[in-house]
Amino acid sequence: MSRKARIRRVPNQDPEPAFAQAAAEDGIALGRQKFDWLNEQGHVGLEHVARARQDSSLVEPVTAALEVLGAILGRLRGDVSILRSSRLTLELPARLVHEPTGTVIEVDGSPHFTSFRLTALEFYPADLAVGFDLQGHKELCREWSEQTDAIDRGLAAKAFGFGGKQRERAYHDALRDLAIPAMGHPPMIRIAAVDGDGDAAYRRHRDSLRAHLNGSS
C-alpha cells in the first residue's frame, strides 16, 4: 500500500501524545507550557509583549521576525485588523517543551504539510535558526499538499475567514518558528510524522533530538 493511501485513512491523527510518551520512557520529559508572547494576536501580540519587556536584546531579533510574519500573513490572506482585535491573553500553548533547556518541540502530522505551509516556509530568511530540516519540510509539503490542502477545508478561522483553517495553521507554525528564537529560546525543533505515528517518529529522531537538547543545555 502506498504512503498516500495510508495518509488518506488517518489524515488528522495527532502524533504528539505518542511521541511524548516514547520520549518520557526514554528519560526525556516534555511538558505543556504557555508563553505570553505566543497568543491569539499572532505577531501583533509578539510585538506588544516584546516592547513591554523593555529588553534591548530583543529589539533586533523581534523586529526581523515581525517583518517576515507580516509578509506571511499578507500572502496567506490574513486580516491584521482582526489580529489586533483578538485577545492578547489567549495564549497558544506549546505542548512539548523541554523545560531544562527551554526547547519547544512540535511533531507535525499531515495537516502541517500543505501548499500554505510551503508558502510560509518560502519567506524564511536564509540565516533563520531552525532545529529541523527546512528543505525536507518543503519537500513534504510539495509531496502531500494535493491531499492535505483539503483537510479542514470547510472550517473557518479567525483572521482567515471561511475555509481558512489551513492558512491559519501555516501562519501559527511560522509564528512559532520565528517568535521562539527571537524571544531567546533555542531554535524550534520540528519532527515530521506525516503518517501520524508519534512513537515511530521518536525512534527515528531519538539520536538527533538528544544531540539538539544536549547542545542547548
Secondary structure elements and their pairing?
Elements: H1 3-9, H2 16-25, E1 31-33, H3 43-53, H4 56-75, H5 80-84, E2 94-98, E3 103-108, H6 115-121, H7 134-148, H8 165-182, E4 189-192, H9 198-216
Parallel strand pairs: 3-4
Antiparallel strand pairs: 1-2, 2-3
Helix pairs in contact: 2-9, 3-4, 4-8, 6-7, 6-8
Can you put this structure into words, describing what you see?
Strand 2 and strand 3 form a beta hairpin. Helix 3 runs antiparallel to helix 4 and helix 4 runs antiparallel to helix 8. The protein starts with a helix and ends with a helix. It has a 4-stranded mixed β-sheet with strand order 1-2-3-4, with helices on one face. With 217 residues, the protein is an alpha+beta fold. It is built from 9 helices and 4 strands, in the order H-H-E-H-H-H-E-E-H-H-H-E-H. It is 52% helix and 8% strand. The protein has one domain. The longest helix is centred in the first third of the chain and has 20 residues.
Give a quick precis of the structure.
The protein is of the alpha+beta class and 217 residues long. It has helices at residues 3-9, 16-25, 43-53, 56-75, 80-84, 115-121, 134-148, 165-182, 198-216; strands at residues 31-33, 94-98, 103-108, 189-192.
